[in-house]
Design brief:
The protein has 391 residues and is mainly alpha-helical. It is 51% helix and 5% strand.
């Protein structure tokens, strides 16, 4: 039988058809994997309902992908998914892990020092932080609200703790913050309690938390065999907490790291170990002044927050970009991810809305090139860059 030559254009169309089929099979596999992982992450008692809802959402994405319109309409799809009620999982999982508010269930302040502490107060603090995150996400507000927000959410129990009058009942309401409490995370009881010791505040822990989770510049771990401030076997220190810490920093081994952490923590010393406002510590007036290692000076929490919002804005945007990319990839960051992080934070500089953050993460090369199977770990399983907090 004589050989019949195939026209070049027909052969090209055939190759394109095979590529489309291969691409659609890959998309379908990724959709199934993503759906399975999401259902497992959400958990709960009614997985069948979760599965049905997720499958409907995934069908929308698969339909757009198979038509080749997913990338074209990516921004609209991201905003649609963030507006969906199922995005509550992002609040619970990502916010809970980035800001560490899940650990509030493990915290137990000293009952004699803080008799007002109970589980109801801890639950209210956790919900307050979740509601701030949810508001930024649902209303597509600027991510700077995580530090800049002049509002918060309280019920009667939390309002009493913050000395905010006129709030009754268990329902949470949005209120304007009093002048003495900085906005965003810095003034919330969840952060202030998590970064305290059981019987006192810890400027070191508070400074370390902000360096790691707000500025993305974690300090190195403490040198081995350096005693804690409360160690009974070390040389006795005297005075207020600030004075004792300044004596501790005389040791050159301790000074380099503490110079970065302590001033930030001192700026928040007017909040006690469970986030209540105070003017004195053990009868002595509190001195909330400080100076960062980069030279900026402040006289209290309001000025410290202003520095974070202005002079340290780029650092915060880079940090929140890294945290979201880490969560999305399910792994820690590597040196080759720096380009993607800079691109995401650069987009946030121009448009700091929450949807911009998510959209730029989805568009990033590391996310686009991640495996579709067998490489989906929870954020909590990713390598930690931060060492255990010193006392």
């Amino acid at each position: 039988m004589p050989h019949i030559p195939v026209h070049p254009s027909a052969e090209k169309r055939h190759r394109q058809s095979l590529k489309r089929q291969q691409r659609n099979r890959a998309i379908k596999t990724r959709v199934r994997t993503a759906s399975k992982n999401a259902i497992e992450a959400i958990g709960g008692s009614d997985k069948e309902v979760a599965a049905t809802a997720l499958q409907k959402a995934m069908k929308v994405l698969y339909k757009a992908a198979s038509k080749g319109t997913l990338r074209k309409n990516l921004a609209a799809q991201v905003k649609r998914m963030l507006a969906d009620k199922k995005a509550a999982a992002l609040v619970e999982n990502y916010a809970g892990q980035w800001l560490q508010i899940r650990n509030l269930k493990l915290v137990q302040p000293d009952a004699k020092t803080f008799p007002e502490w109970d589980r109801a107060l801890a639950a209210a603090m956790e919900r307050e932080t979740e509601m701030l995150f949810e508001t930024v996400m649902r209303e597509d507000r600027t991510v700077m609200d995580f530090v800049a927000a002049d509002y918060t959410f309280v019920n009667e129990r939390l309002a009493k703790h913050y000395e905010i009058p006129g709030i009754e009942g268990e329902a949470f309401v949005k209120v304007k913050l009093p002048a003495n409490r900085p906005g965003g995370i810095l003034g919330q009881g969840s952060f202030l309690t998590l970064t305290s010791n059981p019987n006192r505040t810890s400027p070191v822990k508070r400074g370390k938390y902000i360096l790691e989770n707000i500025l993305g510049t974690p300090p190195p771990p403490p040198p081995p065999e350096v005693p804690n401030l409360d160690d009974k076997n070390r040389k006795e220190l005297h005075g207020t907490l600030r004075q004792r810490m300044e004596q501790h920093r005389v040791d050159p081994v301790c000074a380099s790291c503490h110079a970065r952490m302590d001033p930030i923590g001192f700026g928040l010393e007017q909040f006690d170990g469970i986030g209540a406002w105070r003017a004195k510590d053990d009868g002595a007036p509190i001195d909330p002044k400080g100076q960062l290692v980069s030279g900026e000076e402040f006289k209290g929490p309001a000025e410290l927050r202003e520095i974070l919002l202005t002079k340290k804005r780029a650092g915060f945007l880079r940090c929140v970009s890294e945290k979201m990319l880490t969560y999305a990839l399910g792994r820690g960051m590597e040196f080759y991810d720096r380009t993607a992080i800079e691109k995401i934070s650069g987009a946030l500089e121009k448009d700091p809305k929450f949807s911009t953050l998510v959209l730029e993460v989805v568009r990033s090369v590391p996310f686009q090139m991640r495996r579709g199977e067998g490489d989906h770990r929870k954020f909590s399983d990713a390598p930690k860059t931060a060492a255990a907090a010193p006392k």
